[in-house]
Amino acid sequence: MGKVNFLNSELIHKNAENSFLLHGNKIKELLPEADIQHVGSSAIPNCMTKGDLDIQVRVHAEQFSKAVELLSNLYERNDESVKTATFRAFKDDTSNPPLGIQLTVIDSEFDFFWKFRDVLLANYKYRDAYDKLKNEYEDKSMDAYREAKDIFFQRLMETPEFKKYDK
User: Of 14, 23, 66, 90, which residue is 20 to 30 A from 104 by alpha carbon distance?
Assistant: First the structure.
């Protein structure tokens, strides 16, 4: 896999927000009961980002199969990602910015993307540490960055700030 590069500009974040509104409305038409969240670094002002857009679509368990079917009609399935009975990933690499969609069952093991966003929004020290990690991996292997990012988020899940979202 290629190298990773990060950006931090108001224009990138504004473009992602506009794209979120567009895709969020499309998804809401298909899945009116879904909770649609702008997640990922582009949802956090002044955070470094790869320049992509991540959307989490949260549904109840009984809606999941239908949601997979409907989202598959709009977006490409991301077969490189994990696939479980409560999680599916979709993508649109032709979108501007490139789009990733994480479909999760509410309160399932993968229903954490919105929590990461909220913890990073509320805690400068974690946001700063995440940006520092990104600086360390600038122009390096995407796979190596993803491994380091996974470790960062595993540690974040152990913090009191993250655990307050657990029931």
Answer: 14
Delimit the domains of the chain by residue range.
10-163
pLDDT, tens only, 6-53: 987 788 889 999 999 999 999 999 999 999 999 999 999 989 999 999
Comparing CA positions, the residue from 32, 53, 40, 52 lying closest to residue 149 is 40
Task: Name the amino acid, one letter, at 34.
Answer: A
Q: What is the CATH number of domain 10-163?
A: 3.30.460.10
CB-based burial label for 103 (10 Å; 0-12, 13-18, 19+): buried
pLDDT digits (tens, 9 = 90+) for 113-130: 999 999 999 999 999 999
